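Please go through the sequence line and token line underneath and see whether the fold suits the sequence. See right below:
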Amino acid sequence: MSFSKLLEMDTGSQADRQEQLESMEFQIFRMRENMKEISKKYEIVGIDQTKHDHWVIVFKDEGKETAQLMINDCEAAFRGAWDSCLQLQYKNENTIHIDDIKGTEEQGYGSILMNHLKNLAYEKNYQYVTGDLVKRDWDHLNRLEHFYRKHHFDVDIDYDNRVGEIVWNGDSF
């Protein structure tokens, strides 16, 4: 929950609002501490809030040809491991390729990472973001298709051969 939502609440008791405020204050304190630890090894890209109102830190580990965008949920202390990770390759001068998205599902982490990936593509002047759908994705294909379409990707699926590809052409966020 955001501070503005908390202030606008007409429902719930004063004790409930106080508890939520204390939870947010603790997350902000934890965020500050986690940012100190994360920044020792990684580049901090930003902070965001999940669909469950958790504050997260988005950070990056980048090489010349590959990178990882990662999330740390400030509900817990940073212990060197990410809560979600988007692995990517810089394929050529105009294409970023998504290798994998890892982490807990249905937390909103993937959407946050996708938004930061699009910002990265825009900042580095990449025109396309691509990815592959492979056999291991087939047990959750509907969820993936919905996710990529929600983020304005073209999704092409060959159901017979259990493969597919996704393409975002940089024209919509």
Observations:
- The chain has one domain: 3-168.
